[in-house]
Every structure is written in C-alpha cells, then in structure tokens.
Design brief:
Elements lengths: L12 E3 L4 H10 L3 E3 L5 H11 L2 E4 L2 H6 L4 E3 L5 H11 L17 E3 L10 H6 L3 E3 L6 E3 L5 H10 L2
Parallel strand pairs: 1-2, 1-3, 3-4
Antiparallel strand pairs: 5-6, 6-7
The structure holds zinc ion.
C-alpha cells in the first residue's frame, strides 16, 4: 500500500491514536511522525492524504474503509512495532526530533544545561540537545539504551 521509493526525509508518517508510544520513539529516531490523541478516523485519513503521510495503524478495519497509504502494525509491543517500521523504512541520517513536539532537536553546549538536568546526568554526558519549542533537553540516557540495542540488532 505504499511506494517503495519512499524517503523519510521528504515524507512523513501519521500515527493513529493507539500508537502514541511508537510515534514518540520514532520521532526520537528522526522520523517525522504526526500524532493526535483525539482524532476521528476520517480526520486522520484526511490529514494523511493531504500531507502525503503514511498512516501507521493497528486498525485493520480502518484500512478497509478508507483508501490511504498505510502500514498495518501487527505487534502490540512497542519494540516490535519499531522493528516493523524501521525494517521497511530504514532510518536516514535525519536529526532526532522532540518526542513531544515532532520538531528537529538542536545541539546545545554542555555548559548551557548545567542546573537544567540532574547533576549525575550533567557529569556523565557530553552531548545534549534541546527542543526549541518546548525546551526539553535530551541526552543519551539510560532510557535510550533499549532502542539503540534494537537498532544494532537490526543493523540499520
Ligand atoms: Zn518539544
């Protein structure tokens, strides 16, 4: 249901309401993923079509009712869901995005985050990034460990 000559740089995704965790992790990996918690199927499909986004959904019925480019996600487990997407759409060298705002993160000097992140994080990390929209600061923390392991296993 989608064009194989797809570029994640040029096009993005839109996740259905059941796939919020997947949407957040994909953003962190650099994918452009729209997500709205409260949106009806019709509006979701309209947005996917008008913005040329691939709909990520677990709702088989929805994909039968509407004609829309989509990827039907099989697993309920977010790690498996990431594998399903990344296997079909390998990550390009896109910058990471804010998990909450879907905006590319900016590099920020270490000195700038002193006092804004926990002391042990400041002491043990060198690279920090910030979202210019919400101001959240990101680093290669332990919560990202699992996702890097998945990607290494997939060799993507
Ligand atoms: Zn943000």
């Amino acid at each position: 249901m989608f064009n194989r000559h797809f570029s994640v740089k040029k096009r993005g995704f839109i996740a259905d309401a059941m796939l919020g965790r997947l949407a957040r992790w994909m953003r962190f990996l650099g994918y452009d993923v729209q997500y709205h918690r409260d949106i009806d199927d019709r509006a979701l499909v309209r947005l996917a079509r008008s913005e040329g986004r691939i709909l990520l959904t677990r709702d088989r019925e929805l994909t039968k009712r509407f004609t829309v480019e989509h990827l039907l996600i099989e697993s309920e487990d977010v790690k498996e869901q990431i594998k399903e997407v990344v296997t079909l759409f390998p990550k390009e060298t896109a910058s990471r995005r804010c998990m909450h705002c879907n905006i590319p993160l900016e590099d920020i000097k270490k000195e700038m985050v002193q006092g804004l992140v926990p002391e042990y994080v400041y002491l043990h990390h060198r690279r920090f990034q910030r979202c210019s929209s919400c101001g959240r600061i990101y680093w290669e923390g332990s919560h990202t460990h699992n996702i890097w392991k998945i990607l290494m296993d997939l060799k993507v």
